[in-house]
What we know:
By secondary structure, the protein is an alpha/beta fold. It has two domains: 2-161, Rossmann fold; 168-275, Orthogonal Bundle (N-(1-d-carboxylethyl)-l-norvaline Dehydrogenase, domain 2), CATH 1.10.1040. The protein is 51% helix and 15% strand. The chain is built from eleven helices and nine strands. It has helices at residues 12-21, 33-37, 49-53, 66-74, 97-108, 139-149, 164-192, 197-206, 212-223, 230-256, 262-275, and strands at 2-6, 25-29, 44-45, 58-61, 88-91, 113-116, 119-121, 131-136, 153-160. The strands form two sheets. A six-stranded parallel β-sheet has the order 3-2-1-4-5-6, with helices on both faces.
Amino acid sequence: MKVGFIGLGDMGGPLARLIARAGFELSVFDPRAEALEKFRGVASLAASAAEAAEGAAIVGVCVRDDGQVEQAVFGAGGIAEKVASGALVLVHSTVRIDTVRTLAERLAERGVLLVDAPVSRTRPTDDAPFVFSMLGGDPAQRARALELVRAFSTGVAEVGPLGSAMALKIANNLVSWVHIVTGALAANLAKSHGVPHAELEAVMRANGNLTPTVAGLLSGFERDAPGANADYEAFLASQAGIGEKDVALAIEAAEAAGLDPALLRAARSQIRSTMTRGRS
Length: 280
């Protein structure tokens, strides 16, 4: 089966490599030449998203946000230009629920199907399946997606109708980002009262409060003083942008459901200062 894959970043790149390793005929595209070049000899290198999608039975999209997903699908040189009728598009990115539904409606006019298929990391390494995949959409199309997503997934949930998997991913990410903000606040509180970091970590680990994500962040803060590691600072700033985007999606979804978003707004307002340690 031929597979097209768009987006070869920190998440998309490893997903695409596992797809290739599973034996699928793979064509990839990323607008960054350096990301694309890493797949020479691994997959067919396409000159556009449209070229990667041409002749593919399934096309995966794993880019940063709603704008990039829309560009990859319907922009100049996008998937829609050459994808075949009957093909299936999988949206692995974390985006608005309405974006998923709108894309599906527009693709359906061309006879192309869509499943929301966001992923969440479950392992610290990516040399083997390393994400949990969530699938939303028509049951028959979810079944089609399974053959592919099992190549990179430690587990798969067939959630429900179109948009439901994205709602699940947004809810999951909300917990992660609120925990990151409160974990950093807890570390600062403890430190200001003379509590050694190792003791805070020991207690949080013992009672289950220390998730791998929070543990990694707090350990990084202990390891690298502010400004000491430029690469780490750039990573934190990039992650702050993702966090702000993810919680904004949760605020929108909460409001649509008639839920009070006050806590979500407070957490979002603290993400950048938390991740950059107050420097931006």
